[in-house]
Amino acid sequence: MKLSDELPVDHRLATVYRIGAGLCGVILLIFGVLGFADQLSFFDTSGSQVAGLSTNGVLSLISVVVGLVLIAGAMIGGNVASMVNMTVGTLFLLSGFVHIFILDKGANILDFGMPNVIFSFVMGLLILTFGMYGRVTGGLPHDNPYWRSRHPEEAAREDAARRAKAGPPRVTGGGIGQTLR
User: Fold this and answer.
1) d(CA 178, CA 61)
2) CA–CA separation, 16 vs 85, rounded Å?
3) pLDDT for 10
4) Which pTM value belongs to this model?
5) Which contacts of 144-150 are long-range, i.e. CB under 8 A and separated by 24 or more positions?
6) What is the DSSP pairing of strand 53-54 with strand 49-50?
7) How far apart are CA 124 and CA 146, in angstroms?
8) Cα(17)–Cα(11) distance, rounded to whole angstroms?
9) What value does the CA radius of gyration of the chain take, rounded to a whole number of Å?
10) Contacts of residue 132, Cβ cutoff 8 Å, sequence gap at least 6
11) DSSP symbols for 17-64
C-alpha cells in the first residue's frame, strides 16, 4: 500500500494544507525576489544579506522555485498540498543539517550563515507541521478522515451504531414519499 492510497480525497483538513503551503511559498518567493532585486552575483559568497539572511543568486533562484512549488501545491490543494508540504519541509530540515557542517567551508556555495541554518530549521518544521497536520498522531479523533481510512471496519461499525441509535426515519404528513429525520 502506498501512502497516497490511504489518504481521503476530500476533507476539511485540505484548507490547513493550502494555507500552510501558500503562506510559506509567498515568504520564500519574496525572499528570492528581493535577492534578485539586489542583483546579487550567482555564486557570490561575500556575505550579501537580504532580510537578515546571507544569500546569493543561486539561493535566490532556489527560493523562488521552491516558493512557486509551494504556491502551486496550495492552488491544487488537498493531498497534493499535504505531500508537497511534507516533502519541502523535510528538504529544509536536511538542508539545515547539511549546512551546519559546511558553514565555513568551500562547499558552502549557497552562502549560508548560522541565521540561514536556523531559518532553514524553523521554516522546515513549520512547513512540515502544516503538511502533517491532522494526519499523524496516536490519538486522532474517530471523525478524522485519516483515522477512518486507516480503520474502515471500526468506522463502519461506528456509523452503523450511530444510525441504529437514531432509529428508523419518521414519516410525516408533508406529502407522498417525504421523510424527515
Assistant:
1) 62
2) 11
3) 55
4) 0.70
5) 145/8, 145/11, 145/13, 146/6, 146/7, 146/8, 148/8, 149/6, 149/7, 149/8, 150/6
6) antiparallel
7) 23
8) 11
9) 24
10) 82, 85, 86
11) HHHHHHHHHHHHHHHHHHHHHTT--TT--S--EETTEE--HHHHHHHH
Q: Tell me the three cell numbers of residue 128.
A: 512540515
User: Mean pLDDT, consecutive 10-residue segments, the chain of 181 residues?
Assistant: 50 78 92 82 69 79 94 87 91 92 80 86 92 71 69 79 74 57 49
Residues in the chain: 181
Q: What angle do CA 29, 35, 41 make, to 5 degrees?
A: 135
pLDDT tens-digit readout, 31-43: 888 888 877 677 6
Can you read off the three cell numbers belonging to residue 50?
537580504
* Closest-CA residue to 27 (of 56, 57, 70, 61): 70
Half-sphere exposure of 132 (CA within 13 A, CB side): 14
